[in-house]
Structure formats: C-alpha cells, structure tokens
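INSTRUCTION: Work out how this chain folds

Token vocabulary: learned, describes local backbone geometry

RECORD BEGINS BELOW THIS LINE
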Amino acid sequence: MTADISLPQARRIALAAQGFTDPMPAGEPTRSHLKRVVGRTRFLQIDSVNILARAHYMPTFSRIGPYDEGLLDRAAWSDTKRSPRLYAEYWAHEAALIPIDDWPLMRWRMDDYRDGRYRYTRDVMRRNGELAADIRAVIVAQGASTPRQIEGALGIERPSAASGSWWDRGDVKHVCEAMFASGELSATRNANFVRHYDLAERIVGDERAGLEIPRHDAHRALVAQAAAAHGVATVADLADYYRMTTAQVRAVLPDLVDDGVVTETSVDGWRDTAYLHRDARTPRSVRRSTLLSPFDPLVFFRPRTERLFDFHYRIEIYVPEAKRVHGYYVLPYLMDDRVVARVDLKADRAARVLQVLASHVEPDVDRGEVAQRLAVDLQTMARWRGLDEVNVHPRGELAAHLNCSV
C-alpha cells in the first residue's frame, strides 16, 4: 500500500514547521524574528550546560543565525513598557521558556504538581508545609529572591558546603521548587543564570495567573500546538512534545480531526498513523545548513529523529568518558533536508577558540561537501560565541576533510 507522504516530503514538512525554511533576517535580527522562531517551536528548552551556549539560546541561532542574546534575555527576564515580557519559565517538554499566554494551558500540570514535581520535594512539603507561607511573605515583601536570600530573611543559617548537591539544597530551595511547579511562583534569571523566584502574577500578570482552563481544553490546545510545530507527527511525537501521555493525546485527537485541525495520514516507512496539521507546508526543497542543539525541538525526541532522518542520536554527557562514542556535547549538523554529521564542540573562552573535539559524518554523504559547508557554519558559530578561531581535533572520520576546509 502506498503511503500518502514520502519520507523526504515528511522531512521537508517538519523542517518548514520548525522554521528552517523561513527567510533569514536581512539585517540584525530583531525581537520580531525571535517571536517568529518561538511561534514555530512554541517554547525554548532550558539547560544549564554552558560548554558552548546554554540550550535556550541555540534554537534561535539555528533558525536565524547570529543574534544578540539580549533579545531573549529581555523577553524572558525583564518587563518594561518599551519591551514587555514575552516568555516565562515552566515545565513544558522539560524546563522551558513558554509564551506567557500559554501559562494558563499549564494549569492542569500545576494542579498535578501542587505538592512538588519530585518525591523528595513532596516529602519536604509534607514536613514543612508552613514554610511555603513564610517564603511567600518574604517574596511579597522583597520581590524576586534566591533561596539564599529567602533563608537570610527568615534567619535560616545553613553551612555553605551544604549547597553542592540537590539533596543538600535545603528545605527553602525544595519548597520554592514545589511552589514553582504548582504555579504559585515563577522565576527570572540573572546574568549568571541564577534563578530568582517571584510571584507568578508578577511574571505573567494577574489575569493569566488566575485563569482556569478545563483540563480537556488545555490538552486539546497543547496537542494542536504540538501538531503545528511538527507539521506531521505520530501520537508518540505529539505526546512527547509537551510530555503528555499518549492517552491524553488520543482523548483529544478526535476533536482536532473533526475540526479539521489535523488530518490522518501515513508516511512511508512509519509504522504508526500520522497526523498532518492543516497549516503544514511541503516545500519543494530545503536549502539551509546549521548546527543544532541537543535540545532542539527538531531532534529532542530521539525516536522521531531516527524515524525522520535515519539519524541515531544520543547525548553522552552522563556517559563515562571512556565509553563515549561521539563525545561530550555533540551537536547534529543539518544540511538541507538531512542530518549528515555531528560534532563535539567546546568554547575555549580563555583562548578564544572553538574546539571541534570530534567530527563524525553519516554514511552515503559527500564528505567534501559536508566539510566545506560545515566549516563555514563552524566559523559562524565561533563568531556568535565571541571566539576568533576554529580548531579541528583529529578525532572522527570527518576531521581530515574538515581541517582542510576551516
């Protein structure tokens, strides 16, 4: 039986849905370009690893090229009449910056997390439920605060050595995390990426913080957004995007089909039924090359990445060094409508060098062409990170070709 959509078509649909076929900025990227990117991806996943660039900065770079990170910082961490806040931090796929208008769509999750997201945090809340009222009183009085600042205001003394691990963070930190998960608190970040907790209504506004959306309606809206971000997707793909269950997705799909938001379809080589969003486009070709964050929405659901691009990808940060196959912080390399290579990158800020610790290429691609285009994109990445040089280490079957092109 012939599938409705070929695999190359599905790749182009996905790339268009994620913004990789949108026009590049003619000049310096602006706030409107940032809004366009997040309009495609729906959120920006946050991760603290800063060996190259923190995860929430990378998807915008991958779609519009070098830009001023201050655009995102101001949109997420500050709020002025001239530059009103656009995004707030909450649990989407994982920790993420979401549009503030999406805050009410997460109320069902906040209800599920009203005593905390983790078992240990829930245990702390049960032991110290009254601490939440004290924390709120401090934040009301002194504004956005770190757990250490809250401890100081409450007269809580804790040895500095106790701040190293999750389990030694102290009860204030855990209760702040529980209040954040429940939606009572949100947060801003400073230049050092330190989280300052604040009342959710101060971050997203009273109306959004107080708006209650029925669970089924919120699920329906989130699945519709996930479908738009994918272009074409299976139930598993849709569920993973906002970390929903497949049962939650299946419960609202009939509504979306009946309303014409998505259409059932099939993709060549995919075992499961796919759903095509009504706004999905199928470009005749894709001409774009860029480096992708390990947490980019295009690739963060690894089964879809393998199904869509025939690219087996695992992040190896938590793998012992001796057992790593491709490296510590490995970025997939998108070239047109294929993921053709991967590079282990490190920003050596002291030496002002982008270190390419390893470079690997996929089978059945022209290594010379990949090396030439990747060399240009590595130099662009280096300039964006404020680095002067690119240094290619000899590890990986692409290294020799790449070294000749840099």
Notes: Residues 51 and 346 are 5 Å apart (CA to CA). The chain has a mean pLDDT of 94. Residues 367-384 form the longest helix (18 residues).
